[in-house]
Write a structure and sequence with these properties.
The chain is built from 15 helices and 13 strands. The protein is an alpha/beta fold. The protein has a domain of 228 residues: Rossmann fold, CATH 3.40.50.1100. Helix 3 crosses helix 7. The structure holds pyridoxal-5'-phosphate (PLP) and zinc ion. The site of pyridoxal-5'-phosphate has 18 residues, from helix 8 and helix 13.
Length: 448
């Protein structure tokens, strides 16, 4: 196997390394998270990011078409023959001037990275393309995840295409029907665990250890390699000029961790000279990160973050019986597994964390939809978060801001219909009852 790529514990006092042939979800020595690392001096990396544009000419090759693998020199762990793609990452960056005007931002300065356009309808596909490639490298036949919905949809799709068996652990928290229907339709074996997401996450890790399943939650460092490419595509769309801000919802905190790693590596490679600031947005009903970082002062601290503070926080949370609860089911997570990596992102990008209420999320979602984009509730946390950051002066209206729309509008139709049926929401658009009578209908339409 390629030894210029390897796995490494992120804790600086440990920094143990492991080869690519192992399926590990935590450092066997100290329990910290693992990174995929590269010995860049022994690898060929394009001299300029613009060099990747050559692949636009060769899009008939599946690996050059994939929004993940056309950046393959920046995640060089898999031989080409092992790479898995189902056409992920054809996701546009949309300049959203009307939405900008609506929330008080300058025209030409707000962009939406529309990850709902992926094959299974969420950004998770970027990660699965990479994780399934590693699963093939290690000869896995059974893959598993705990999921609030989108991971299972994506897992089941990729497993079906790779001829692997998918085991999906879902909890008693909210799961949007669009997502559950996908896992079932793609043939995922779905275990309905009598516990919440955080319980599912613990059980799937135990089952993985006992049975040697291949785990694709975001503790899988290979998955995060695939999610780095979301940032490469954002840069590509902005003609390789980093924006001022990336605003992203935070659940298990894998996505922002991948973004941070992408920027740290690009800076090390001399491919960018400036790193955007990353804002991670929690739902107020699942706000562990917000409380720990913004209220308790938790920080990366060179990789030695205050573990005692985190332990005390969780002990208090359990003692109080506090469970995550938000309409944004994809981020309804109180024990985020990638906390440490997220702290690294915040440190490397001068990042910030905000929380937004369910009502703020619902109004922001309706605004995203009203101007013809559309997303699921968790995704709208990014736009709701931007509103907050504008209001508190952290972001100014001239800053170039990219909000990540993590999942498709159709993932959670119940949340959408319920919003529009309600009286008095900022943008509710109620169906208009009319009799089955053309005169009445014409009159109604003329009223406007
Ligand atoms: C998974 C998911 C998130 C949360 O991403 P993390 O990497 O877990 O922080 C947000 N939005 C949607 C739609 C998701 O599917
Ligand atoms: Zn370690």
């Amino acid at each position: 196997m390629n030894d210029a790529a390897f796995q490494q514990c992120i804790h600086p006092d440990c920094a143990a390394t492991f080869d690519l042939g192992q399926s590990l979800y935590a450092c066997p020595r100290c329990g910290s998270l693992l990174d995929v690392r590269y010995d860049w001096d022994r690898l060929r990396v394009p001299a300029r990011l613009a060099d990747f544009e050559a692949r636009w000419q060769t899009r008939s090759q599946p690996l050059d078409h994939s929004g993940v693998w056309r950046f393959r020199e920046l995640l060089p762990f898999a031989p080409d023959a092992m790479k898995v793609t189902v056409g992920e990452g054809q996701t546009p960056l949309q300049q959203a001037d009307e939405l900008a005007a609506f929330i008080g931002h300058d025209a030409g300065r707000l962009f939406l990275q529309y990850e709902g356009f992926n094959p299974s309808g969420s950004f998770k596909d970027n990660g699965m393309a990479a994780a399934f490639s590693h699963a093939r490298m290690v000869g896995a036949t059974r893959v598993a995840c705990a999921s609030t919905g989108n991971t299972s949809a994506s897992l089941a799709l990729y497993a079906a295409r790779c001829g692997m068996t998918a085991w999906v652990f879902i909890g008693q928290g909210k799961i949007a029907f669009g997502k559950l229907s996908q896992a079932l339709e793609y043939g995922g074996r779905t275990l309905q665990v009598a516990g919440d997401f955080d319980a599912c996450m613990a059980r799937v890790q135990e089952a993985t250890d006992r049975l040697g399943l291949y785990l694709v939650n975001s503790v899988n460092p290979f998955r995060l390699e695939g999610q780095k490419t979301i940032m490469y595509r954002v840069l590509e769309s902005l003609r390789w000029q980093p924006p001022d801000w990336i605003v992203v919802p935070g659940g298990n905190l894998g996505n922002n961790s991948a973004f941070g790693k992408a920027f740290i590596e690009l800076r090390e490679l001399g491919l960018i000279d400036r790193v955007p600031r990353v804002a991670v947005i929690n739902a107020a009903g699942a706000n562990t990160l917000y409380r720990l970082v913004e209220q308790e002062g938790l920080a990366w601290n060179g990789g030695c973050c205050d573990a005692g503070l985190v332990d005390r926080y969780y002990a208090n949370m359990r003692a109080a019986g506090r469970k995550a609860s938000t309409i944004a089911s994809a981020i309804e997570i109180n024990v985020p597994v990638n906390l440490a990596k997220c702290l690294r992102t915040l440190d490397a990008t001068a990042g910030v964390v905000r929380e937004v209420t369910d009502d703020e999320i619902r109004d922001a979602k309706a605004a995203v939809g009203k101007f013809g984009y559309g997303c699921e509730p968790a995704s709208a946390a990014s736009v709701a978060g931007l509103r907050k950051l504008l209001a508190d002066g952290t972001i100014s209206r001239g800053d170039r801001v990219v909000c990540i729309l993590t999942g498709h509008l159709l993932k959670d139709p119940n949340a959408t219909v319920k919003y529009h049926a309600e009286m008095g929401r900022e943008l509710s658009n109620r169906p208009i009852p009319v009799p089955d009578d053309i005169e009445a209908i014409v009159a109604k339409i003329q009223e406007g």
